[in-house]
UniProtKB/TrEMBL annotation:
Pfam families: BPD_transp_1. It comes from Paenisporosarcina cavernae. This is Amino acid ABC transporter permease. NCBIfam families: HEQRo_perm_3TM (TIGR01726). GO terms for molecular function: transmembrane transporter activity. Coiled coil: none annotated. Its main location: membrane.
Length: 221
């Protein structure tokens, strides 16, 4: 095996810059996904059939098609259809945010439905309207229960973020490809970036487990 990491040493700062570039759009995407996912989850449990059908159709489309296809459609279709030259960063946020919303909506819906129905009935009996009941009573309890699942979604997005390299976004994967093209050695930069992804995912996993343990501790005391 002929490995020579010395050639990529000058490129290490360039590669490391990709960590923040990657996390930047992942964090924004998870925020977008959380906001849209919350609205979709409320639509799914709504008494209005139109909202339920829309939310279910949205989830079906975005969970039933590849994320890379959604990314490509946004990046190439928007300029073709509208004439707007969308940037790779905005394309990534839109694709990952819209996709994540479909999964987060299911997570939040399950969390809401796991809350004791007696609390909803008691709130309605006390004359509390639907909106403040959801905002102040039901959603806070649901969020506490689904934080570990939301953390897993964040980890999944971090791993899947590598596909944005296909549209030229300078994330970790794209930087590894550039270094490989410059040095004519692809294995070493890819291996180095793979190690970075692993460290990121393991770090986020530990944070998620710590949050879960803290929530379990709070529930027991």
């Amino acid at each position: 095996m002929n490995l020579d990491f010395s050639q990529i040493v000058p490129y290490i700062p360039f590669i490391l810059e990709g960590i923040w570039v990657t996390l930047q759009f992942v964090i924004v995407s998870i925020i977008v996904g959380f906001v849209l996912g919350t609205l979709l989850s409320l639509a799914k449990i709504s008494a209005k059939k139109g909202l339920v059908y829309f939310a279910d159709a949205y989830t079906s489309v975005f969970r039933g098609t590849p994320l890379i296809l959604q990314l490509m459609l946004i990046y190439f279709a928007i300029p073709q259809l509208t004439g707007y030259d969308i940037s790779p960063f905005l394309s990534a946020i839109m694709a990952f945010g819209l996709n994540s919303a479909a999964y987060i909506s299911e997570i939040i819906r399950a969390g809401i439905q796991a809350v004791d129905k007696g609390q909803t009935e008691a709130a309605l009996a006390l004359g509390i309207s639907y909106r403040p009941m959801m905002k102040d009573l039901i959603l806070p309890q649901a969020m506490k229960n689904i934080l570990p699942a939301l953390m897993n979604e964040f980890i999944t997005l971090t791993k899947e973020s590598a596909i944005v390299s296909t549209i030229g976004y300078l994330d970790l994967m794209r930087r590894a490809q550039i270094v490989g093209a410059d040095t004519y050695r692809n294995f070493e930069p890819l291996l180095f970036v793979g190690l970075i992804y692993w460290i990121l995912v393991m770090g986020l996993s530990k944070v998620g487990k710590r949050v879960e343990r803290r929530l379990n501790y709070d529930d027991q005391h």
